[in-house]
Amino acid sequence: MTKQQFITLATAAAKKCSVCSGLPAGITVAQAALESAWGESRLAQKANNYFGIKARGDDSWIAMPTTESVLDADGKSSLTKTTARFARYASMEECFAARDRILLSAPVYAEARNHRCEPIAFIHSLAKHWATDPAYAEKLEEIYLAHGFAALDRAPEPSSTNSSASPAAK
Fold first, then answer.
1. In this model, does residue 140 exceed pLDDT 90?
2. What percentage of the chain carries pLDDT values higher than 70?
């Protein structure tokens, strides 16, 4: 899949999920791009998992290698390689909906939920708990802004209607 194909598919899935969740669709697209390398990661291709969501309980899953950033006793970050059980989804839309459910229900994302109308604050609140990468928020914000995904999260402009053209006026 090309980058543009990814953006088209991810935008459609994010917009559909955003209608139900109220979460910013543009950030969903940017996060999926970051986490899945624009849909090119093995996890995205083999499991329709675009966010690195770990499997829980009886979820369908796939084992994949991953690199995590861990803090030592001195608070210094280092990278460690491990294998993790990641959730497997039937489609991109199912994965996006699962991500939104996590953000809406997990107590650690309460701050992010409170910032759903403030995209940059939402990104930084989300990043505190979503990933172990200490630069995650900055990477996500860069993709969000550089690729114009912020346009997906702006309130639509009120349409100007001519009263004589409205059905009620006829």
1. yes
2. 91
Q: Which of 68, 64, 37, 73 is nearest to 133 (CA)?
A: 68
What is the distance between the alpha carbons of residues 102 and 153, in angstroms, rounded to a whole number?
Answer: 20
Torsion 125-126-132-138 (CA) sign: negative
Owner of token pair 């402009």: 157
**152 close to 11: Cβ distance less than 8 angstroms:** yes
Task: Write down all domains in the chain, each with its CATH number in brackets.
Answer: 3-45+90-153 (1.10.530.10)
- The C-alpha angle with vertex 101 and arms to 145 and 126, in degrees rounded to 5, equals 40
Residue 58 has pLDDT above 50, yes or no: yes
pTM of the entire predicted model? 0.86
pLDDT greater than 50 at residue 164: no
